Task: inverse folding
């Protein structure tokens, strides 16, 4: 049964700019700080942020079983814990309140003043307290490119890659929302041909074009989530820039995987777009050969057609789009990732985040990192101002955007936009 | 200046059994559920648990700047956030209240009834909400053993090992306290000589003898913690069993490190022993050659002499000690681990946990895992009941204990004791 929130004919009484990522069909969730310095959970239509805490206090959700303070929190974790049925009831109701034919809020100026904010009046926060963050490595094109560069071009994929949605644990504490500048990391690297490592600023700071999904409480320790049930535990998705220091990574990552090369910062877009909102944009994911083991076998369309772009903007300059990719290229689906992650009984909680891994497409202009786009720096990119980039330079702003489009409905994610600052300087004592 | 809580002459009016891990010099912190089903923060002397929430409500901490509810919480995170000065004031005060010459609580039967519990009356909980968990790999003997077995016996240590306290991110959600049984994981493995992986129960479930330290809020994102300040941000230590499925690990871990082989469960002892309590047991850590890079260079004694033991007890049988090791063997110190972890600006929060990595000593009877003790299963161990073990079998209970001893004072950690259950069986529909 199609979700009524997805009806492409639906219109809202709020103004929605052409090509907005946030029509009434989107209804994402986020957390923001209001002009009165109050933190609340909210949604967004067009360029208006909706204070769900205030809406709830005014009685607009009175027929939905919600605790009084469910939206008056600084994270979405508790709301996400309420489960899929509640998410749907709330989105249905928001869709109803802002429907062009519904006058209950539209004609109540006092309530509108309390509930609605322009985007300039608010400051977006991290939407969830991320308990655990896992990053996958699920783009075949990306894994192949990395294998060609660093291992054997003829056998670029490692033997386990086609059998396992390979993943590793990342660092939750370093995840920041769009708009938070991050610092170039210091670290150990091994210069080419040397045996002794040196210490200094990373010279190869890179973005990774990724998306990530946010889970609800899914299981108890020791019990797996079957692949066909997995999507029920996915609340929604965000854009994700998995900042990487390639030179630090190269020296540190054998045998236990990436560590300081990744955990200096990771950036996400602040609005979580629900899986329900993405429902119309399902596509078949790439055919999997060999057939995965039974616990990873899925039916139906488990991919999503999400257009992705990355731009680099030098300080004071113009942004240049450096790649255009798509989430539909992912070889392993989110359902498979979650089923694999829990097949051993690993516990998944509300607010956990799982990254896709770098999303590279089949052609060089669709690669999801500077490492691949410039082929390890061998083919620098030229930006619109004529400057060239092998990797990301200090004061560059990297912005990822993403949206789906079908039947004249565009569901977008906004952006994750991050400036890279120079290394931290210890103050002289 | 020596801490007065460490005075070896100090005696308490509470009974302390001979060889107890918890004399008045220890004063660890934990979280427990009382007979009235109330969760509180507590400490322990001998076989008595002390309800710090109740002590505080009764006014015993009135001269220390503490919020009213600081101990009436289900985790220690906020108390740990209060910082080292506060931890010391509280431990000093507890040491004073329970001093043999102090009658204020000793002679107040009503208060004693409220504040004291026997260990049988309470149920220990996880002491902190672990935001991020990192596991290091800092025993040279362990890294060498693994290198000999799986790589090149002549070049067992990887090139980065002597320069970097190698570490990786683990899964916080699967960490459980002593006494919580864990399940044998299901997963993918590659049988020897085969090219296609199979799915089934792990056949090589192992313990890893580790210790872990718990941090306080240490920095802001982007700023490193200097090695000489690092210990100020370490609240205390616990015993840690980093359960591992060797066959799953072997197939999955290249190139991004261990994942499902580790995150099915990790077990910790419930009492956090403070670094202050461990102060008398400092020893020099092993000499480091080559000299580490300047950001890892430390002065003074940064190792700790902590005796460690692991036993295996079959269902209904007797426990057999299978190894005796010591924390002093660690090549990289906790201070170096924390300095390295933050050199790139990675944020460390209150309640984060960092594991040592398997603690193996120089001789085969000091190895910290079945993998090493049985040399990949080639030399099975014989238990007291005559049965043999290559790895851990269903219904075995693995127990790690640890203590320091000097000047007739024994400071111990209690135990982390965990039964391994068979794989989870999906209920038939």
Result:
């Amino acid at each position: 049964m199609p979700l009524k929130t997805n009806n492409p004919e639906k219109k809202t009484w709020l103004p929605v700019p052409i090509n907005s990522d946030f029509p009434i069909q989107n209804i994402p969730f986020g957390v923001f700080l209001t002009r009165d310095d109050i933190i609340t959970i909210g949604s967004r239509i067009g360029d208006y942020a909706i204070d769900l805490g205030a809406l709830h206090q005014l009685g607009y959700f009175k027929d939905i079983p919600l605790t009084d303070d469910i939206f008056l929190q600084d994270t979405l974790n508790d709301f996400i814990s309420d489960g899929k049925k509640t998410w749907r009831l709330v989105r249905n109701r928001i869709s109803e309140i802002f429907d062009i034919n519904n006058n209950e809020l539209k004609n109540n100026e006092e309530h509108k003043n309390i509930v609605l904010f322009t985007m300039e009046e608010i400051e977006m926060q991290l939407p969830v307290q991320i308990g655990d963050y896992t990053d996958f490595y699920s783009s075949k094109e990306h894994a192949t490119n990395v294998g060609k560069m660093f291992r054997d071009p003829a056998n670029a994929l490692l033997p386990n890659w086609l059998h396992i949605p390979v993943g590793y644990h990342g660092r939750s504490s370093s995840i920041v929302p769009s708009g938070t500048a991050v610092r170039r990391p210091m670290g150990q690297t091994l210069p080419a041909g040397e045996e002794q490592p040196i210490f200094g600023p990373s010279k190869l700071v890179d973005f990774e074009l990724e998306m990530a999904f946010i889970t609800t409480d899914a299981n108890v320790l020791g019990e797996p989530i079957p692949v066909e049930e997995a999507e029920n535990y996915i609340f929604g998705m965000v854009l994700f820039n998995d900042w990487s220091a390639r030179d630090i990574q190269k020296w540190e990552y054998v045998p236990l995987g990436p560590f300081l090369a990744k955990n200096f910062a990771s950036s996400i877009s602040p609005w979580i777009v629900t899986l329900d909102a993405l429902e119309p944009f399902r596509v078949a994911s790439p055919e999997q050969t060999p057939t995965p083991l039974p616990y990873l076998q899925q039916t139906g369309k488990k991919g999503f057609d999400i257009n992705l772009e990355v731009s680099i903007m030098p300080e004071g300059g113009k942004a240049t789009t450096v790649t255009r990719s798509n989430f539909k290229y992912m070889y392993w689906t989110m359902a498979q990732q979650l089923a694999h992650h829990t097949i051993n009984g690993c516990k998944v909680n509300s607010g956990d985040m799982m990254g896709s891994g770098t999303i590279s497409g089949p052609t060089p202009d669709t690669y999801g990192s500077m490492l691949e786009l410039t082929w390890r720096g061998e083919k620098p990119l030229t930006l619109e101002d004529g400057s060239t980039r092998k990797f990301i330079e200090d004061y560059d702003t990297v912005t990822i955007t993403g949206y789906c489009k079908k039947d004249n409905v565009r569901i977008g994610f906004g952006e994750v936009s991050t400036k890279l600052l120079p290394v931290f300087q210890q103050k002289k004592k």
